[in-house]
Amino acid sequence: MSATRQPPQEQAHQPGRESEMTPRPDYEPRFPGVGKLKGKVALISGGDSGIGRAVAVAMAREGAAVALVYLEEHNDARETECLVGREGADCLRIAGDIGDEDFCRTAVGMVVDRFGRLDILVNNAAEQHEVSDLTELESAQLQRTFRTNVFGYFYLTKAALAHLPKGGSIVNTTSITAFQGHDTLLDYSATRGAIVAFTRSMARSLTGRGIRVNAVAPGPIWTPLIPASFDADHVAEHGASTPMNRPGQPNEVAPCYVFLASDDASYISGQILHPNGGRIVGS
Prior knowledge:
Blueprint: E1 41-45, H1 50-61, E2 65-70, H2 74-86, E3 91-95, H3 101-115, E4 120-123, H4 139-160, E5 169-173, H5 177-180, H6 186-206, E6 212-216, H7 232-236, H8 250-261, E7 272-273
Helix pairs in contact: 1-2, 1-8, 3-4, 4-6
């Protein structure tokens, strides 16, 4: 099987803009909704584009109202808001930095004020930066990556716990790099490993409250973070080394989040799903 490659491209700013990608990622759910999340409210960080956009549209199709938290990609966020609305669901856009605990408290408060409840938290926003050697990793970058990818998850979860009911669900985004490592994404891989441990620890902590906590560990997926992280040649080969010889699309990952957030997964907590193109990794 020949590898499927993307056109070489780069973006200068993280976390990247979906509107500038060629081709655009596939976000559209593949099947009709059946009301799995009817009446629920979901808060999705990094919900403007990539996996977050696909999750937002998929959850909307299943009946959820959706709040999108994103950094500053306003055009992408407005487009996602329209896509959610096209599914007949209400949508709230909230711009800000999840590395700021005050912002996370404010964002959760805005969701509850708007919808009157919060049932599902999807911790998905992240950033990554290449370094070829640990000696090149500057302290400011290390702290920034952990502030977004780890502290932000803690902050949003801490704020959400005041509102999540029995039967609520938290779904975290980790990565295949947490299990395989990555030679040039040193700090990013470390944060993804931290989120695996966070997921398992929070699952144990919240079992008595009837709140399930799980995670999704995508492999190479075609999202704005890719051209915003790597050079054009690397982007062109993204996903080509997987057993399926291609990168995944966001709409191939989003069903994992819908499943884990729904009552279909009522007996699942502390687990990691691996949509990664066929790589066999430890769980």
